[in-house]
Design a protein that fits this description.
This is CYRIA/CYRIB Rac1 binding domain-containing protein. This protein has about 90 residues and is mostly helical. Helices cover about 60% and strands about 0% of the residues. The protein has one domain.
Length: about 90
Amino acid sequence: NLLAQFQREETQLFVLRVMVGLVILYDHVHPQGAFVKGSNVDVKGCVKLLKDQPPCKSEGLLNALRYTTKHLNEENTPKNIKNLLAA
């Protein structure tokens, strides 16, 4: 687990925020986005890591992925990713 490397809760939250920010940034700057199958971003792993956290820590970050990404709702986004992020 990525977060097990860090003892302080503040550091764990910081890592989650940075991870989400980088997914959003990559999705905006890459022509096909972060969600396509050939992407170098493990979006599924990121979302699963967020969903393993208590809702008070993760819900805002999941909403950031849902509502601020550029390519999530495109037809070439795999259905399993869309389903993972479905509210």
